[in-house]
Amino acid sequence: MNAVKAGHFSFNNVASNNTSLEIISPSANIAGAIVRTAVLNLYGAGVVYLITGTSAPGAIGTGTSVLSSHYAPQASGMVIPYSIELPPGKGLWLRPEGTPAGGGIHVTYDLYSA
User: Fold this and answer.
1) How many domains, in total, are found in the chain?
2) Burial degree of 84 (CB within 10 A; 0-12, 13-18, 19+)
3) What is the pLDDT of residue 1?
4) Cβ-contact 109, 35 below 8 angstroms
5) CB atoms within 10 A of CB 108
6) Which of 53, 55, 103 is nearest to 75 (CA)?
7) What pLDDT was estimated at residue 17?
């Protein structure tokens, strides 16, 4: 297994069901960003999405830029096994759906310099 660089910034938080939780603001992402490590958590049956875009997402549907998702019939977690680069001006959100207990994320990332 290869070593993975942890990002300079870290974010750990939880979101209620059907609520978008901002991780990286589009306005803070001036020159691009890279998610180095990420773990998606479900606190009950349902699905949790990692989403990018220029504004906070609503319900998942056509046109939603889902980067990764984790579905399970019970509480569990998933390690995203790769880095994710975001173009300038794109934000990053966590959104649990169909899970009354919500979901959480543990992520490290870097913002590129302009």
Assistant:
1) 1
2) middle
3) 66
4) yes
5) 18
6) 103
7) 96
Residue 25 covered by a domain: yes
pLDDT tens track for 46-56: 999 999 999 99
Confidence of residue 70 (pLDDT cuts 50, 70, 90): very high
CATH of the domain at 86: 2.60.120.1010
Domain-located, residue 95: yes
The Cα angle at residue 34 between residues 1 and 84, in degrees rounded to 5: 60
Torsion region of 27: left, alpha or beta (phi above 0 gives left; psi -120 to 50 gives alpha): alpha
Predicted local confidence at residue 62, as pLDDT: 76
* Residue 4 falls inside a structural domain: no
In a domain, 99, yes or no: yes
